[in-house]
Design brief:
With 236 residues, the chain is an all-alpha fold. It has 10 helices and no strands.
Length: 236
């Protein structure tokens, strides 16, 4: 593994990096699980509206989005043609949107109310899109949480595995400059998938899904750091 300013904690495709960051993700899982059993009020506060846990999730997505857009701006046109920038730009904008939605676009931070037109249509009476009635509640047309789970499973687990172990997939993703996260980050998404149902089977609570979102955002942030540093790729 190449020496970097982060030393052992470099986020790349190496086996050592995979072991280090998988260990970090497992420690994360152990920490939040222990918190649930030792201090449930603190755990619940972690997932409560406007808590530092929810705000940290938004910050992680915000930084991830900025890193991807900065990555596009810093790459030369010769090794990153315009058409190949599109996927990275779209993913960066998606993470910025996720950050805004997570804190209802700063509604409680800046102290502005929910417009009347949205108040009646939003299940939680908040200034965001994912809680609008077509996307939330018993009459929802689609489930945004399920869509995000599919997105997370694809971009956080399946595509990184395909890139690392399937040469044809790697060649294609390199050709189109797909912003694939390195194998080192997969542990966060596996841990996130395991965390919520594991603890919910013991004692169900709404806070589990919020803590799960924090774990996923940490995984995507780690992946975007690697993409920004150009350490997420392998030779075709």
């Amino acid at each position: 593994m190449q020496k970097t300013a982060f030393g052992t904690f470099s986020i790349d495709q190496s086996g050592r990096s995979f072991l280090v960051w998988t260990t970090v993700s497992l420690l994360f899982l152990g920490g939040v699980a222990l918190l649930w059993f030792v201090n449930q009020p603190a755990y619940i506060w972690l997932g409560t509206e406007d808590s530092w846990g929810e705000n940290l999730t938004a910050v992680f997505y915000l930084i991830a989005g900025i890193l991807l857009l900065a990555h596009v701006l810093h790459r030369s046109k010769s090794d990153f043609p315009g058409k190949q920038k599109l996927l990275t730009v779209l993913l960066g904008l998606f993470f910025l949107w996720m950050a805004g939605e997570e804190i209802s676009w700063g509604q409680r931070i800046f102290g502005f109310g929910t417009p009347e037109s949205m108040m009646s249509a939003n299940v939680q009476k908040e200034f965001n899109v994912h809680n609008l009635q077509p996307l939330s509640g018993p009459t929802a047309w689609v489930d945004p949480h399920r869509l995000f789970s599919i997105f997370m499973l694809l971009n956080g687990i399946l595509l990184p595995l395909a890139y690392r172990f399937w040469t044809a997939a790697r060649r294609l993703m390199n050709k189109i400059s797909f912003p694939v996260v390195p194998l080192s980050c997969v542990g966060f998404f596996v841990v996130g998938l395991v965390h919520s149902p594991l603890i919910a089977n013991i004692d169900n609570h709404w806070a589990h899904s919020e803590v799960q979102e924090l774990i996923f955002s940490a995984g995507f942030l780690a992946g975007c750091i690697s993409i920004y540093q150009g350490r997420n790729r392998l030779p075709s």
